[in-house]
Automatic annotation (TrEMBL):
Name under which the protein is recorded: Lipoprotein SmpA/OmlA domain-containing protein
Annotated keywords: Membrane, Transmembrane, Transmembrane helix
Transmembrane segments annotated in the record for this chain: 34-58
Length: 147
């Protein structure tokens, strides 16, 4: 996180410095000024977007029961696989508990919720939850959200 802040501060300082320098220089054409200001702004915005992308990237892996049971705070890496491949859809409550285990899980009415850790992101401060919704003890929906 500190690296991103440093990159952003340096980008702003360099952009402001070059824009001031450019404005104080008497160039022959306003086109050069506009081009330079546009280019420096583009570089600044590009570096900000690149920094956000780097900070929010995380590897996605296929569901693995052993990893799910041992790496509770890294479960978010497998949650997309569980949702997209519909691994739990159609399973009973007992089958879900047998597959995903009882570590860091909660049961509320017709929902089973598993803590999956913090998904890397710029403003992610709360842990994320994998929510398994049941109807008549059968899984009908699986979603993920920030708690």
């Amino acid at each position: 996180m500190i690296y991103i802040i440093i990159i952003l501060i340096l980008s702003v300082i360099l952009s402001l410095k070059y824009n001031k320098t450019l404005l104080s220089i008497n160039l022959k054409s306003k086109v050069y000024k506009i081009t330079f200001i546009s280019f420096s702004t583009l570089v600044l915005v590009g570096s900000i977007l690149f920094s956000v992308y780097i900070y929010s990237y995380y590897p996605r892996i296929s569901f693995n029961k052993k990893v799910w049971d041992t790496e509770v705070l890294e479960r978010y890496q497998m949650s997309r696989d569980i949702i997209e491949k519909k691994i739990l859809i159609g399973k009973s409550k007992q089958e879900v508990i047998q597959l995903l285990g009882t570590k860091e899980f909660y049961v509320f009415n017709n929902k089973i919720m598993y803590t999956i850790g913090h998904i890397p992101g710029l403003f992610n401060i709360d842990p994320n939850i994998l929510c398994v919704e049941l109807e008549n003890n059968i899984v009908v929906r699986v979603s993920q959200y920030e708690s």
